[in-house]
């Protein structure tokens, strides 16, 4: 266990503690603490509006997502294993993957240098406003008055807000930028919040006594926390605000997995593992391996440092990619997933139940700031499944599978995208939807497709001259056959390009209609010149 004592090398700890006594003008009282350096009281939240109501639980009654337990042999090939479980897992949208007992990678984030020194910024989430809130314009009021009321609502510890945060915009709801924390500080802060909310402590003296004597404090079960979470989201309580360290770029903050060393003799075996999320996107067999840029959040993993009730709202991955999330340590994370084949039904249900929010902000689902109870979705015929992720486990989300969830306490997880070849049709579908929505893409689907096709052709030629190689480790013969997924994907793109080329010709020169219509009869996808000739 990492020591919680202050690091002597840490720059200005007293100044940082003084800075974090204030948050939006509400000071944390230190009057009853006998020691000026009393960190127990420093990390303790002040007052809270929300309190646990166990008799009013709103826990959804839904089925669990499947759990997969690969053998040692199956676990040697991450891309191959993900592809093998896809037919079963895609019926649920999400699934848990529990590694073999022998796979226990160390977490560099627990090292003293990371735990006590590396800072990250958080987002402030109003949990009670994730589903039931009024449109922004209806809530609008004079700015001075809004600020004054805001000060009364801010409750938990620490630094100032950043002025350019998304929620400062007057025209949309979002999460404000919150306080800066180290992992050590956030751990204490998250634990104090949870104990304050669920512990029902009668006095400060008893609370501090139990902390100092290291007594085990009663904690609610995940099921009880889940029921309370949805009670809050449904608006049956006072205001509840939490912080969430989300979308932290591992290239900046650091990864929870070991990274490759320049010294081969010092190489950690887990640094080359195919399940190390730093390696996964660029493994052979992953289409993203052909991406030239290190795209943050897609190729470069993101970290997520959570506390009780911190949430990730309903969304799909960019370009309908797979995602793989690994929990390094902490308390469970509760997930909800909807199969990709029911994505449209979920979107329709959210628009139906939150019409005013979508009327004001049609792209609301792209903002990742809105929840809708799984109970509501289930009542309208949408299939929803639950997964409770524990430390040392993966959660896989499938293409176009909407997912959401929350954390039951302090934890740290890491996630990245991956794209086996069977993702290609989903990626093409995403591109066409983005085109209609005038939405920017984060990767070039066509470039990935062409590079994948080039690699497949190369492998096929190698197979022709080397029968010992069989069909190749990643089954290029299956993907490139007449009905193969890669063949079909290339055909779809070719037809789209032909149709677009036809439209360009028609728009550029009205006298070339007949010539350009001939494009549809050509097997070649050569370009149509300015004069409409080949």
UniProtKB/TrEMBL annotation:
<feature type="domain" description="JmjN">
    <location>
        <begin position="65"/>
        <end position="106"/>
    </location>
</feature>
<dbReference type="GO" id="GO:0034647">
    <property type="term" value="F:histone H3K4me/H3K4me2/H3K4me3 demethylase activity"/>
</dbReference>
<feature type="region of interest" description="Disordered">
    <location>
        <begin position="1"/>
        <end position="26"/>
    </location>
</feature>
<dbReference type="GO" id="GO:0010468">
    <property type="term" value="P:regulation of gene expression"/>
</dbReference>
<feature type="domain" description="JmjC">
    <location>
        <begin position="269"/>
        <end position="435"/>
    </location>
</feature>
<dbReference type="GO" id="GO:0005634">
    <property type="term" value="C:nucleus"/>
</dbReference>
<dbReference type="Pfam" id="PF02375">
    <property type="entry name" value="JmjN"/>
</dbReference>
<dbReference type="Pfam" id="PF02373">
    <property type="entry name" value="JmjC"/>
</dbReference>
<dbReference type="InterPro" id="IPR003347">
    <property type="entry name" value="JmjC_dom"/>
</dbReference>
<feature type="compositionally biased region" description="Basic residues">
    <location>
        <begin position="138"/>
        <end position="152"/>
    </location>
</feature>
<dbReference type="InterPro" id="IPR003349">
    <property type="entry name" value="JmjN"/>
</dbReference>
<dbReference type="GO" id="GO:0000785">
    <property type="term" value="C:chromatin"/>
</dbReference>
<feature type="compositionally biased region" description="Basic residues">
    <location>
        <begin position="14"/>
        <end position="23"/>
    </location>
</feature>
<protein>
    <recommendedName>
        <fullName>Lysine-specific demethylase JMJ18</fullName>
    </recommendedName>
</protein>
<feature type="compositionally biased region" description="Low complexity">
    <location>
        <begin position="1"/>
        <end position="11"/>
    </location>
</feature>
<feature type="region of interest" description="Disordered">
    <location>
        <begin position="129"/>
        <end position="152"/>
    </location>
</feature>
């Amino acid at each position: 266990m990492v020591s919680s004592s202050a690091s002597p090398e840490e720059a200005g700890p007293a100044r940082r503690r003084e800075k974090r006594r204030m948050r939006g003008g509400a000071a944390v009282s230190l009057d009853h603490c006998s020691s000026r350096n009393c960190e127990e009281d420093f990390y303790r939240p002040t007052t809270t509006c929300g309190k646990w109501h166990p008799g009013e639980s709103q826990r959804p009654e839904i089925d669990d997502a499947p759990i997969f337990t690969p053998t040692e042999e199956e676990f040697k090939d991450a891309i191959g294993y993900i592809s093998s479980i896809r037919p079963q897992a895609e019926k649920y949208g999400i699934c848990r993957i529990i590694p073999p007992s022998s796979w226990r990678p160390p977490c560099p984030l627990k090292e003293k240098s990371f735990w006590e020194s590396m800072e990250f910024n958080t987002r402030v989430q109003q949990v009670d406003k994730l589903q039931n809130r009024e449109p922004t314009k209806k809530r609008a009021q004079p700015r001075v008055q809004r600020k004054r009321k805001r000060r009364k609502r801010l409750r938990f510890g620490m630094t100032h807000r950043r002025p350019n945060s998304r929620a400062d915009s007057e025209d949309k709801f979002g999460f404000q930028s919150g306080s800066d924390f180290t992992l050590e500080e956030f751990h204490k802060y998250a634990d104090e919040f949870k104990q304050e909310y669920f512990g029902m402590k009668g006095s400060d003296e008893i609370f501090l006594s139990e902390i100092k004597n290291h007594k085990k404090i009663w904690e609610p079960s995940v099921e009880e926390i889940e029921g309370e979470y949805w009670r809050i989201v449904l608006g049956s309580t006072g205001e509840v605000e939490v912080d969430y360290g989300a979308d932290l770029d591992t290239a900046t903050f650091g990864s929870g997995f070991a990274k490759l060393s320049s010294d081969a003799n010092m190489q950690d075996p887990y640094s080359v593992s195919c399940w190390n999320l730093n390696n996964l996107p660029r493994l052979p067999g992953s289409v993203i391996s052909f991406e030239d840029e290190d795209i943050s959040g897609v190729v470069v993993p993101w970290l997520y440092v959570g506390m009780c009730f911190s949430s990730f709202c309903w969304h799909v991955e960019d370009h309908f990619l797979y995602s793989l999330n690994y929990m390094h340590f902490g308390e469970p994370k509760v997930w909800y997933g909807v199969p990709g084949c029911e994505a449209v039904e979920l979107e329709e249900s959210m628009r139906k139940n939150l019409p005013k929010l979508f009327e004001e902000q049609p792209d609301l689902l792209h903002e990742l700031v809105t929840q809708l109870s799984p109970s509501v979705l289930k009542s309208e015929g949408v299939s929803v499944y639950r997964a409770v992720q524990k430390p040392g486990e993966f959660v896989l989300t499938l293409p176009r599978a909407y997912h959401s969830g929350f954390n039951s306490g302090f934890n740290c997880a890491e996630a990245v995208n991956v794209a086996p070849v069977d993702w290609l049709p989903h990626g093409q579908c995403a591109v066409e939807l983005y085109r209609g929505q005038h939405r920017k893409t984060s990767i070039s689907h066509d470039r990935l497709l062409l590079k994948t096709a080039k690699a497949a052709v190369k492998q096929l030629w190698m197979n022709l001259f080397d029968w010992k190689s069989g069909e190749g480790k990643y089954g290029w013969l299956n993907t490139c056959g007449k009905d193969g997924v890669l063949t079909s994907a290339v055909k779809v793109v070719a037809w789209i390009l032909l149709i677009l080329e036809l439209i360009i010709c028609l728009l550029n020169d009205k006298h070339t209609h007949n010539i350009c219509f001939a494009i549809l009869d050509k097997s070649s996808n050569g370009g149509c010149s300015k004069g409409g000739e080949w």
